[in-house]
């Protein structure tokens, strides 16, 4: 399998232009539950200057310290960083962080509260699980009063069994200053919030307009099938037009456009290295696209990106070289100058544990290294063999830039990636938030 740079992927923006967009616009952000840094990176790329990050996991903190932040231990009062300076990273329990010093200083509060309480792969205790991070997000909102909130989590929040609790989360996000009494049941607090929404006037600067979006990351240019829910809140006194915001986050990529490109040959022109037998096998299983009437070609969604696209390079990345069989030895060989591009032996496929195929978006990256159900960390090559994906290949599937260095052994690096927000998905929503805030301010 060889990888050649593609010059034909419409809509791809270079990594350098993303960095230029991250130049200080005067807007600010705070990131909680920062993990390996995907959402924090996305928010900064959208032009928000980070004032503070918080994370508990040791290896994730090492990753953030290596790439973008200055670590501080619990109990230290951070200063607001100057423009162009690295933000402080409070290493430790979010419950011990005082956010009052940032009151009215923050445009966006972002974070992905721990998802184990709601994930299908977790214990699914929901509100009963003390790893639930939402109460800490709400306290941070009360203390900082951010203009907007971006909250990402697993699609399990939308399961029918959790719908009453997710409705409660949205009510609490809407009315975060109506604090839940210590020791009280969430159902009782939910009734109080419901009554306030129906019949009580709440100050506009102490309430938020809230929407949630069930998304597939592939629809936002991420070369991966990853179903998540993103909740967005805007402080009501800003007067943000939520209908306009919904239009801003409309998906721009589609599977049908990918199939169109495969049938027209455009996809294969981007990948001339693919053997004829592989092309024929792929074409035999994809659907024939339906004819769609469009006023212009500009209305056509961009094609879903595939694992092969990711390995070849998007957003100005250079192609990743393949890992030859003799280098499946757990050693860093600095292949092509890329770090973490390390071959790992003994990958297996069997019924129910099938590999990623190159000409589809990758399966959902999960917080595990080997033995995760479904074969998400295994890749089928053009020659019919298979191997584990490297950390760098997995990072590309999460749309992390190649320069982003992950800390810890392989398992910890894969865990950070599996728990992260894909950068391009985060950017789509963070850029829309920036636009919505700008439009609202221009109306004042």
Question: How would you concisely characterize the structure shown here?
Answer:
The chain contains 14 helices and twelve strands. The chain is α/β, with parallel strands linked by helices and 444 residues long.
List its salient traits.
alpha/beta; two-stranded parallel sheet; 14 helices; 31% helix; 14% strand
Structure description:
The chain is of the alpha/beta class and 444 residues long. Helices cover 31% and strands 14% of the residues. The chain has 14 helices and 12 strands. It has an 8-stranded mixed beta sheet with strand order 3-4-2-1-5-6-8-7, sandwiched between helices. Helix 4 (134-144) links the parallel strand 5 (108-111) and strand 6 (148-154). The radius of gyration is 22 Å and the shape is globular.
What proportion of the residues form beta strands (DSSP E)?
A: 5-15%
Order of helical and strand elements: HEHEHEEEHEHHEEHEHHHEHEEHHH
Distance between the termini: 56 Å
Got a strand count?
12
Global mean pLDDT? 89
Please work out how many helical segments DSSP would assign. Answer: 14
Choose one word for the global shape.
Answer: globular
Q: What value does the Rg take, in angstroms?
A: 22 Å
Helix content: 25-40%
Strands in their spatial order, largest beta sheet:
3-4-2-1-5-6-8-7
The biggest beta sheet is recorded as: 8 strands, mixed
Computed structural class: alpha/beta
Low-confidence region ranges: 1-20
